[in-house]
Design goal:
Blueprint: E1 3-9, H1 20-25, E2 30-33, H2 39-43, E3 48-57, H3 61-72, E4 82-86, E5 102-105, H4 110-135, E6 146-151, H5 154-165, H6 171-190, H7 195-204, H8 207-216, E7 225-231, E8 235-241, H9 249-253, H10 266-273, E9 278-281, E10 287-293
Parallel strand pairs: 1-2, 1-3, 3-4, 4-5
Antiparallel strand pairs: 6-7, 7-8, 8-10, 9-10
Helix pairs in contact: 4-6, 5-6, 6-10
Length: 294
């Protein structure tokens, strides 16, 4: 079984190296490269699996962002969370965060870096488990014409994702996008955890504990997400509706620079990029229709 590793891109001026001993003491296997050009080679190294990449964001962000996007288009890099470290003198509002899982600012707190990497790698493990599950199965429902489903927990979301993605073209691609929509509906919709609170919970390592607590509470335990699947002559539509207050989805669709340091607005970017030809939200923001052209 391949060893999970944390990859760092470091240069002579990097301050990230000061945290390596601390991260190693917490069980992280660290490897380093000195440039972006070396990342792909590490992804192809046998017996290791890169589960996160941490790197500094330079002042010349336009060229840098283009290079990151080129790397992320590689098959082996597509699902790996990238964590950016904003150097002194750089401004967060100048960085489009979509290629990143999260953006940290110097000086870096070691515990926040640890929790951010652990959260990123948890996402990576979830993606890979989902892809493995989809690739190992054949559809038990065939070319489903339509169906309506209700779910409450993240486990139920993953099970439904597997089933519905197998009824779509390119199931492994659809699965990742659909998973993000369902997870967002549960976490941000029904459980009413906004993006600022989620940042705090992830950085403090309390995210999973809070999810479990809210799912069991009287306030949230009866809320559900409704998913409607419909196959039409030229497209598939998957409608996801939660019972939350909605959100201003326009900011995320348009990549609002002011959200550049939110580590989880990335979920919508993934859903857009993975498997769907179009996302259509209602005005309130508690319902989205994901369209797949046939």
């Amino acid at each position: 079984m391949a060893t999970l590793v944390s990859l760092f891109v470091v240069d002579a001026n990097s301050t990230i190296t000061r945290s390596f001993d601390f991260l190693s003491s917490k069980g992280h296997n660290i490897i380093t490269v000195s440039s972006l050009d070396e990342i792909i080679a590490e992804l192809e190294t046998p017996d290791q699996m890169v589960a996160s990449v941490t790197l500094s964001i330079p002042e010349n962000q336009t060229e840098f962002e283009g290079r990151i996007r080129t790397i992320k288009r590689q098959e082996k890099a597509k699902y790996i969370p990238f964590i950016g470290v904003l150097q002194s003198g750089c401004h967060a509002d100048e960085v489009c965060r979509q290629p990143f899982f999260h953006i940290l600012e110097e000086p870096i707190d070691e515990n926040i870096l640890l929790h951010t990497i652990e959260a990123a790698q948890s996402d990576f493990k979830r993606y890979n488990a989902l892809l493995k599950e989809v690739s190992s199965r054949t559809s038990a429902i065939g070319l489903i014409k339509s169906g309506s489903f209700r779910l409450q927990t993240l486990g139920q979301a993953e099970a439904l994702t597997t089933m519905l993605s197998l009824a779509c073209p390119e199931p492994s691609v659809v699965a990742l996008g659909l998973s993000e929509l369902l997870v967002n509906a549960i976490e941000h919709g029904n459980l009413q955890i906004n993006y600022q609170l989620k940042s705090q919970l992830l950085e403090s390592g309390q995210w999973e504990k809070e999810i479990t607590s809210r799912l069991a509470s009287n306030t949230y335990k009866d809320k559900y997400v409704e998913v409607v699947f419909e196959r039409l002559s030229d497209r598939i539509e998957i409608t996801v509706t939660d019972q939350g207050d909605g959100f201003d989805w326009r900011k995320f669709i348009e990549c609002d620079p002011s959200l550049s340091t939110d580590k989880h607005g990335r979920g919508i970017a993934i859903a857009i990029a993975m498997g769907f030809n179009k996302l259509t939200y209602n005005d309130k923001g508690n319902q989205v229709i994901a369209t797949i052209n046939l």
